[in-house]
Amino acid sequence: MDRSETSARALDYALMLAGWYRAAVTAFEVIWVNVPPVSATSQPVLSPKQLEAFADDLQRFVDAKAPADAVVHTKIGHGPVVRAIRQEARELHADLIVMGTHGQGGFERFLLGSVTEKILRTVTCPVLTIPPAAPDVPTVSTPFQSILCAIDFSPASLRALEYALLLAEESGKRLTLLHVFDWDEDRLVHDDRATREIRQEHRAAILVRLRALAPADVREWCDCREMTAIGRPHEQVVLAAAGEKADLIVMGAHGRRASTLLLGSTTNQVVRHATCPVLTIRT
To answer: Is 179 in the same domain as 125?
Structure first.
């Protein structure tokens, strides 16, 4: 975090989830001194007094938000931000990283933005990204009442579905499974009836496959829906999330082949453009 408004929103969500799961939160801020090192192999060094000042500022920032019964630790890291976050997550055996998609901080702090995308590509634990347009943290006991899970039937997206099902069972009233066909409708001539019929059959088959992904008991406690869309995957995921009033988008970190959801570049684009939190799962 960098104590910006965006990272403050991410902290709010982290605290909410920690309260929900009775977990601990580590508020981690990385300080990067933007001055040349003494030598090619050394890094700029902060004095103990400077580090103490940063730690005090971070503690005050967290104390202003954390409820009295929350278990919150604060820690200051130093050095290249992505490397520091990865190392801290490994050492903590973190179950989840929560980040804002961009931020603004002082001249010595790394702005969260491209950092988030690098973290998405390199960490092994799930990452929850909170966009600037995300709503305030829900005050209800079940925060994610409408969940959208993007499916391209790749191992990554099926792993993401496992998380979506767990969250829907614990919190959701609605789970929407979405598959996007990356078809170029503009190139389909108006009277190409045969191609349209083939596509309709393919869509019907995909809806059957989507329906089979959710166990029968899921529909007993959750409104489980299946959807397909045509167009650019990231645009359709964001549009569908808005249409379903989703509180959370769940996606795998990479896809199967070029003609499917492309859950690599697609994930980054969804994270950039979504107006609700995005949970990314790597395999």
So the answer is: no
